[in-house]
Write a structure and sequence with these properties.
This protein has 471 residues and is an alpha/beta fold. Helix content is 26%, strand content 27%. Strands 1, 2, 13, 14, 15, 16, 17, 18, 19, 20 and 21 form an eleven-stranded mixed beta sheet that branches.
């Protein structure tokens, strides 16, 4: 459903609907007199919540933030074309390959993971499929077994492998990620693992950059522990290898539980990491609004409410590339799509929200303030602003969006993503066009009612999308 409301001289203001005090009093008195034996309950209208959008405070959105992780262990080579088509329907722009822990065991020549306890019966996509997926690729090179077994033979093997891979693929693959979560590998305490990772990563980085100076090399670390990047940098600098590193690779699993993984810590931590490393390129090669990091183990549409805010927070904090995890719904309730049978995929609420972001958030990510936490982006070329409002656990709640220092001329469209049960898994959300009647062109505000409980709308945790035009 598509509604356009333009500014005109006849635009109704909220004040024109107010009755005078004497008429209102008389009406209430008449109603009370007509029903003297029935109790009455006063039901005052809720005061609106207020959100401000600040187009003057914006950060450029890189197309590579709309990336997705391949799931080599779950999606077979035969299923990959359908899987890739599903991701394309969401508007994705980057594929991380071969995946997460698969990468630390992956044999690029045979498309297998020999010796890995989780090796699948059928191998996943091969290198050729990844490079022909129709999007940019980010390849993960292994650091195992060196972190757990730091021998000279293992170090030389990994250096040689990395050099060969870049020579073979560096002409088209420009993003290279060194290792996967070194702190979770076997062998030693955390400090020892960091030292071993730095040793192998600096050797690999040097070999890769020597093979092709045009690639981007990222070293990985824990986004909740910025100080570890200082130690890592110092270990690289000891051999002058830090110049071979272009950026940092983070796995940002976040929620709203108030712990170290709370999404409100993202701006502070990423500023600290950028300051400690001197690197401006940040690749969130795995990220999600996870159940474990959220109050009440949020999933489905409740998790989507956090998802869009986390992505907005990362972009605002300067993340230049991202790859969402998980794509298939292997962590029940937060995947982009689910496989109903071999090679047949149905979309889920997170995938629908990803589509709204990938196809609607272009140009610039715009600062927002107020409540609820809101996402906004601006396309300066066609003069539109897109706003995503996670309504969370409100009911029949007006929300007024203020566009600061912006001459809004029309509301181009409004939609609500909703579910009767916002915690239900393995099903898509409903998307309904909503009629916008409260556009105040004089004050550049739009008011919508979240979770109204009316026919065709959900019970809570809607995601509302507005697109406005401005002059």
């Amino acid at each position: 459903m598509h509604h356009t409301f333009r500014r005109s001289g006849t635009l109704k203001r909220s004040g024109t609907f107010r009755r005078s005090v004497p008429v209102t009093v008389l009406l209430i008195a008449a109603l009370v007199a007509a029903t003297p034996m029935r109790p009455t309950v006063a039901s005052a209208a809720k005061a609106p919540l207020h959100v401000w959008v600040h187009p003057g405070d914006k950060v450029a959105i890189q197309p590579t933030v709309f990336g997705v992780n391949n799931e080599w262990r779950q999606v077979t080579s035969a299923e990959f074309p359908a899987f890739n088509a599903g991701l394309h329907s969401f508007g994705y722009r980057l594929l991380r390959f071969p995946g997460g822990w698969e990468s630390e065991h992956y044999d690029w020549a045979t498309n297998t993971t020999p010796g890995w306890s989780k090796s699948p019966a059928q191998p996943g996509a091969n290198v050729r499929q990844a490079k022909r997926a129709g999007v940019k690729a980010a390849f993960v090179v292994r650091t195992a077994p060196y972190v757990g077994d730091p021998t000279a033979a293992n170090l030389n093997m990994l250096k040689n492998q990395a050099r060969r891979l870049v020579r073979a693929h560096g002409d088209t693959v420009k993003h290279w990620l060194v290792g996967n979560e070194w702190w979770l590998q076997w062998g030693g305490d955390r400090g020892e693992k960091l030292r071993r990772y730095a040793t192998v990563a600096r050797a690999i980085a040097r070999e890769m950059k020597a093979a092709n100076r045009t690639i981007n090399v990222y070293v990985t670390g824990d986004w909740t522990a910025p100080w570890e990047f200082t130690w890592m940098k110092n270990m690289f600098t000891a051999t002058s290898a830090w110049r071979d590193v272009d950026g940092v690779d983070l796995h940002i699993y976040a929620g709203d539980d108030g712990t170290a993984t709370d999404y409100r810590n993202i701006p502070r931590n990423l500023r600290a990491i950028r300051s400690r490393t001197g690197k401006s390129k940040i690749f969130a090669s795995e990220w999600a609004a996870t159940k474990a990091n959220s109050v009440g183990n949020k999933r489905a549409l409740r998790s989507v409410n956090n998802m869009v805010v986390i992505m907005h927070s990362m972009i605002r904090a300067g993340v230049t590339s991202m790859a969402y995890w998980p794509a298939p719904d292997i962590a029940q309730g937060i995947g982009l799509l689910r496989e109903v049978r071999s090679g047949v995929y149905h979309e889920l609420p997170h995938g629908q929200a990803f589509r709204w972001m990938a196809k609607g958030m272009a140009g610039y990510s715009v600062a927002t303030t107020g409540s609820p936490a809101t996402v906004a982006s601006q396309r300066t070329r066609n003069k539109t602003i897109t706003v995503l409002i996670p309504s969370k656990a409100t009911f029949n709640q007006p929300i007024t969006v203020h566009f600061a220092n912006t001459d809004v001329t029309e509301v181009l469209s409004g939609h609500a993503m909703w579910m009767k049960d916002p915690n239900a898994i393995r099903q898509a959300a409903n998307i309904t066009g909503i009629r916008i009647t409260d556009f105040d062109g004089a004050n550049d505000t739009v008011t919508v009612t979240a979770n109204p409980g009316s026919a065709g709308r959900g019970s809570s945790h809607e995601l509302i999308r507005l697109v406005v035009g401005y002059r």
